[in-house]
Amino acid sequence: MRATSEHSLRFLVEKWLAPAPSAAVHVTEFSRTRVGGRRYVHVETSAANGSRGLFFFRHDDGCWCVFPPTGDAQHLYAHPRAA
Q1: What is the pTM assigned to this prediction?
Q2: How far apart, in whole angstroms, are the C-alpha atoms of residue 50 and residue 63?
Q3: What is the rounded CA–CA span in Å between residue 58 and residue 46?
Q4: What is the per-residue pLDDT across 23-43, written as a single tens digit (0 to 9) for each?
Q5: Are strands 25-32 and 64-65 parallel, antiparallel or unpaired?
């Protein structure tokens, strides 16, 4: 079982975006995935060298991750090729 505090949205934003203590962090988008209806958010932070952002996905166990749940990921990458 994963440690919930290490997969909270706040922990992951600090880990992946490493905002400075005085930097503003904004949720710029939140919704549910089309496949599976799972929650996701897009978080951005600004710094002197520009802004950066990431999508975070909520998994069935309540943890947030930078990758979609396995069932959703299969649909994201399984696009039919044009004829």
Answers
A1: 0.73
A2: 28
A3: 24
A4: 888 999 999 988 888 999 999
A5: unpaired
- Rg (C-alpha) for the chain, rounded Å, is 15
Tell me the two tokens of residue 71: 């069932």
Secondary structure letter of residue 37 according to DSSP? T
Exposure string for 11-50, b = 16+ CB within 10 A, e = fewer? ebbeeebebeeeeeeeeeeeeebeeeebebbebbbeeeee
In the structure encoding, which two tokens stand for residue 19, read together?
Answer: 């905002």
Looking at residue 82, what DSSP letter applies?
P
Cα angle vertex 74, ends 69, 77, to 5°?
120
Give the C-alpha separation, 26 to 24, whole Å.
Answer: 7
pLDDT in tens, 12-25: 998 998 877 778 88
Nearest to 66 by CA among 3, 2, 13, 4: 13
